[in-house]
Structures are given as C-alpha cells and as structure tokens.
Amino acid sequence: MPMLADPSIKYKPYTPLNLPDRQWPAKINRAPPIWLSTDLRDGNQALANPMTIPQKMSFFETLVKCGFKEIEVSYPAASDTDFNFVRMLIEENRVPDDVWLQVLTPAREDLIKRTVDAVAGSKRAIIHMYNATSCLFRTVVFRNSKEETLALAVKHTEIIRKLTEECTAKYGTQFRYEYSPETFSQTEPEFALEVCEAVKKAWGKAGTAYDERIIFNLPATVEIGPPNHYADLVEHFSRNISEREKIFISLHPHNDRGTGIAAAELGQMAGADRVEGCLFGNGERTGNVDLVNLALNLYTQGVHPKVDFSDIQAVIDVVTACNDLPVHPRHPYAGELVFTAFSGSHQDAIKKGFEAQRARHAKARAQGEPEHWEMPYLPIDPADLGSTYEAVIRVNAQSGKGGIAYLVQQHLGLDMPRKLQVAFYAVIQEIADREAREMTVEDITTAFRKTFHLGGSAYEGRLNLKSFRISAEPAAGGVDGEAVDERRQFDGTVSVDGQLRVLRGDGNGPLSALLDALRTHLQIDLSLREYSEHTIGQDQNAKAASFVELVPNSGDVKETRASTESYWGVGIDADIAGSGLRAVLSAANNAIGDRPLPELKLSVGFNARSGQADIATAILNSLKLELPRRLQASFFEAVQRAAHGSGGEISYDALVGLFRERYGYYDEEENPRFAVKSFKLEHLNASGRAKLSGEFIINGKPVSLEGEGNGPLSAAVEAVNRGLDGKVSIREYAEHSIGEGSEVKAASYVEVAYEGPGGSPKWTTWGVAIDSDITASGLKAVLAATKAVELADEEARRTAGQK
Ligand SMILES: CC(=O)SCCNC(=O)CCNC(=O)[C@H](O)C(C)(C)COP(=O)(O)OP(=O)(O)OC[C@H]1O[C@@H](n2cnc3c(N)ncnc32)[C@H](O)[C@@H]1OP(=O)(O)O
Ligand SMILES: CC(C)C(=O)C(=O)O
User: Fold this and answer.
1) What is the pTM for the complete model shown?
2) Whose CA is nearest to atom 8 of ligand 2?
3) For residue 116, how far is its CA from the centre of ligand 1 (angstroms)?
4) Is the pLDDT of residue 608 over 70?
C-alpha cells in the first residue's frame, strides 16, 4: 500500500499539554542525573535471543565497572533464567555494596511474590512495578476504567509494601520502590498525577533521604510527540506532584521518533532527577534512550557524568557480544566512523586544528590555564574514550592533501612542505580513483616509500647513495684580503642500476656538488628549486629529514626556476648532509624514470671521457676500495704514465696490477708481501704517547721494528725512520669498512711524505692495506707506503755513490 496522500485521515496528531508558563527552556543541565541501566531488562526483553546467564553476568560486570549504581537486572517472573540470574548475583555475592539491584514486575500478586523472592537476601533492591495508564491501554489492553486502573496500582503497591517488609524482616534486605505509570506520555497528565499520588499514599513511607524517596518513572513507552511535549509533561508532573522532595522523578524515553536523547535532556531540564536507558540505545523497537550518548553529551559540556567510558571499545565489545547486535558505524561517540574524516576540507580543518591546538595548549600550560579542547569537526577528544587519533583521518578519493599529509606525519614523522603535499596527493588520488577504495594507512605509507625510494632495499631507486664525503676548499678568484667563499666537493660511491660508481662533483654546497656529479658522470642535468629539512625524534635517536624539489636544467636560470616540470625527493639520514644528498638522489630517481644512463666504461683508455672517477670506479668494482680523492688524482697520473706507451689505452687487469704494485696492496694470505706478524702497543704514562714493537713482513722479508709516537701510526713511522737516512711523515690517512657483519674488514690509506738526507726535496707516496683489525690495517698501509720510500732511498744512495 502506498503512502497516503492525506495521512490525517489515518494518523491523529498528539495532544499537547497547555503549559504557557513552562520554565524548562531556560534551564541548563549542570549535573548528571541518577543513571539506571535497564540493559538487562528492557534491553534484554527486546532481543530475539535473550541473554544467557554468563552473558548477563559479563554485561552486569561491565556496567559496574563503568560506574552504574542502579541496575535493573531482570524481570524475574519472566523466566527461570531471569530469576536464577538474580539469585546468582546475590548468592555469589557479585553485587558491590553501593549498587542497587532493580527488578521489574507487573501488577500481579503471584508475579510480585516471585519478584520479591528473587531479591530476597540482597543488600539493597528496588522493586519496580508498572501498569499502563493511558486511555488506549485502559480500553484495549486492560479493559479497565480509570478507577480500576488506579485501584490496580494501589492494590499491588500495598502488596509490594507488605511482601518487602516481610522480606526485610527475614533477610535484612533494604528496599526502595519505583512505580511506572506505563505509557505516561500518552496518559492524561492529571490522571497520571492522580495515580501517582494514590501510589505514594499506598506506599506510605516516602521520605526525603536518598534511599527513602519513592521513584516515579515517567515513561515515553512509545515516543509519540516531540521532545518539548515530553518536557512539558515532566515539568507539569514535577510542579504538581505533592511532597516533591520525597520523590525522584525518573525518565524512561524510547526513541520511536528518533528524539529519545533530546527528550531525556529536555526532561532533565524540566526537573527530572533520574534517567533510565540502555548502552548504545538497545531496547524495544527503536530502542531505549542511549545512556552512553547522554553521558558523553554532558562530558563535552564539561560536566562529568559520573560514569566512565575511558575504554569505550571494551564496552562496545561486551555489549555487542551480549546483545548480538552491532553498534552502527555512525553511532554517536561509539561508531567506528565517528572520529573519522574522509573528505578533504574536513581533514584539512582537523590537521590545522591539531597544529593550532598544540600551540594553544603549550601557551595555556605555560600560563597555568586549562588546555581546552577546540577542534573543528571533533566535539570530543577521541583519546578520552581510549581511541587514538590514527582513526581520525581516513583517505579515499574524496580526500585532500591535508589528510594525507597528516597521516604521513603521524606514521612516518615527516612534515611535508606544502608543494610536496600537493605532489604526493596526486599520487594517492590516482591510486584511490583507480582502485575505487579507501586507502589504508599502510597503502599511503607504502606509496610514499615507493614514490620517494625510502625504507630499505624494497623501495630502492636506480640511484642509491652508498658512501660519501663532503670536503671544503676555498673558491678560486679571491683577491688580496677579500673574503673567499668556500666551495664544497662531493666524493661518493653511488650504486647506479646495481653497479657501484665513484662520483665526484663541486658546488656551492653539498647538494649542488652532488648535482654537479650527476651531471658530469651520468648526464642527469637538474637544478635545485626548493629545499627544506626538519629533525625527526630527539637526542641520540634524532634523524634529519630533507625534502628537495629538482627541476630540469634548461641552461637559463630564470627559465629553469619557472619550470612546470619538477621532481620531489625525500631523504632521511642520521646526518643532515646525508639526508639532503639522499633527497637529491630520491628526486633524481623520479626524474630519470626508465631512461638509460651512460654506461660505466670498463676499458679505461685515456680519451676525453675517462677521468679520475672512472679509474676510481674500476678500482672500487674490482677491489672494493673507495679511494680518497687525492689518491684518485695521484693514481690517475700514474695510470696516464703507464699507458703512455700504448697510446693512452690500458687494460682493466693492467690497471689493477699497477694499483697493487704501486701501493703495496696485496690481500693474499700465503706469503704476504706486507704483514703484521705480531705487534705490541704500550701506552706510555700520562703523556698519551704510545710505544710500538713488533715483527713485520715488509716486501716479503721479516723485519723487527720498534718506535714511539702519538699513536700506532706515528710510532710505526718513527720505527721506520730509525732505519732510513731520510725521514717519512704521514700526510693523509683515510679508512673505511668493507663488507658487513663478521666478514667486515678495514681498508686504510696512508699518504707519506719523504724528505731525503740533507733536506733533499719532499715527495709523497701512498700505501693501501686491508685487515680485519683496523690498527693492523693502518700499520700495513704505513709499511706499504714505506716500501716505496725505501726503493726511492736506495736509488738515491746509489746515485750519490756513483757520483
Ligand atoms: C513497556 C514494558 O516494557 S513492560 C514489560 C514487558 N516485559 C515483558 O513482558 C517481559 C516478561 N513478560 C512475561 O514473561 C510474560 O508476559 C508474563 C510472565 C509477565 C505474563 O505472561 P502471561 O501471563 O502469559 O501474560 P501475557 O504475556 O499474555 O501478558 C498479557 C496479560 O498481562 C496483562 N498485563 C499487561 N501488563 C500488565 C501489568 N503491568 N500488570 C498486570 N497485568 C498486566 C495484560 O492485560 C494481559 O492480561 P490478560 O491475559 O488478562 O488479557
Ligand atoms: C516498564 C516500563 C517502565 C517500560 O519499560 C516502558 O514503559 O517502556
């Protein structure tokens, strides 16, 4: 049947009470009501499968834990389960002393008797009796007149009084009484008052103390009118019932029109003292009023509700398991989506809200003022309910850059600059649109790592920084007394498509030096347009995060800066220079895409395209040695000389052989040319000097050496000098590790200067060695360098003898 064109022929409007002098609209609820949870009664009776005793027990314990002091635990006359549950609570002493058990009974003597029997022996119990009083129920259900309806209530109140007094005498149970004129909101207001006055009289012992008051519960058994109508009825009742001070007025709203919460709040403004309801609004039909919602509404007004939902998820878990009903995802305060924003402008506002609030709170804290919560779109701090902020922002195709940036900030600790937010937003948008689904935090962080080649080998790009050194040298061109800017030199090992390459470049700073290296060696011609950095974490765990935007170099500075094509990169490193360099390579990876890069030349013939770095790369790939820059230059000259006779061409093997011979670098274990057989290093008193003595093999021959110095290397030099006519001194020392874990070795590079007898001019040479012991590797490098000196010294003496 379709909806009626004129529903007035079927539905009559509610009859409002005429209460022109109503006071409630100006009132504000500044204190919580007395709460009565009826989950185990009204909630339970509405379930397809009423709760079992273990379910009721776990629900009861949850209510107690939340702080409920009055709990309607059952309708004992309904079933053995209901009856036995109450007995179990009492007999197993499960009820805390400050909690009142409430039980419901109809106005029938046999059932009242069973109800009182159920609570016999409990410390404190509220017997709750009801009979419907509205015209509809009088005529249709009970077929009673007004007088008979009133008489039914009075008679059974008297029965309850008698039975409870007997029970108190026998078991010491303390009783209170609650009476409900069921269907109150549809009952003639004067008749509801009349019945309640008669019930009060029949009970006969209402007092002003908390546990003496009679409770008149005013149910909106079915919500038939708007909440202001209900509030008028409550105010009318509250103003006109006699001995108001001996009464607690209780509200029992249902939610048929969806305004149960409003009805309860307005009803409290209208004078009610108590509210009955269920957690998350379970109950007959559309449910009872939701106590969690009501309590947290108060909380957000700065009023503690005196019930606690700090771990709301634990409460949801118990309630949904017992009721076998879900909590709607958009349920106030409790639904899984209520602290979530998908849409871009909401996310943006929340992100800005958090940032502003952090600053505001820091200021308030410093001034000893309250740190108020003021957050766009979030009326309550999810943390107060045990929820984390992670859930606040979720991303789909409706989301904007702000939300994505918030998640990256929360999960990776990175504060992206605004333009990078825009760039990364496009990446996520594309995925979200293509896959037509929500992007999880993991989707976003994975996309971030992939896009910017962060987070280990899984996401490495084609260019990958292995090691680097930044050095400074004055820029050319300074004239007398004029300040000269320092230039920076980048020397690094970069994995290029899996192959290690030595790259070198110069620039005003480390990043431009690396860009120069990329341009020179790999034909990647990019300029830096934007750079920013921040620290992640604190103290010794702090790292640096860098963000760069690179643009293709057009040759014209203005045009380059204005380029519409740009590539972002992100770098993280314990070292600030390292993070910037990694960011440049991250952006360069994005710029090169799949474009082929110039191959490493394995034949190192001397044409215009083979330079010092190419030679160093060949040594790196064959011997794993990362030559210091000055050694690269020195070896390059040696290679040029060696290749002179072959027109500048030299084979790969000849190159490696030349290196070994020249720098005494032999890593074979049997019959080593240079070895430290044994050595002893003594630290001499407090002078900080060291004495070295040991047995060494120098150029295949065993030699005993002894010397003193500031450390092992200078002691070795002193020992060597004892056997020379001239004098060697260390000019440069460098080292690095090779390999990983237990296989790691130290590579040492020593440049020594030699000055012949009689102060003949100085010349320098290098020694290179590796050893699993770093001191031994340094000593071996000194010996290897010395070998070259000895040869030159002998040569010098021979020449002198001939003269
Ligand atoms: C608004 C509310 O939520 S009220 C609480 C409702 N909760 C429940 O009904 C759950 C528990 N109920 C039960 O287990 C059963 O209904 C019982 C045990 C109470 C009674 O069962 P039965 O005797 O079989 O009666 P039934 O369930 O058919 O109830 C209807 C009868 O109770 C009467 N009745 C209804 N409410 C009341 C009341 N408050 N006081 C006295 N009698 C009542 C009806 O007029 C009807 O009487 P009739 O049979 O003479 O016509
Ligand atoms: C028994 C009464 C209080 C009731 O549940 C109702 O009217 O909804």
Assistant:
1) 0.67
2) 221
3) 17
4) no
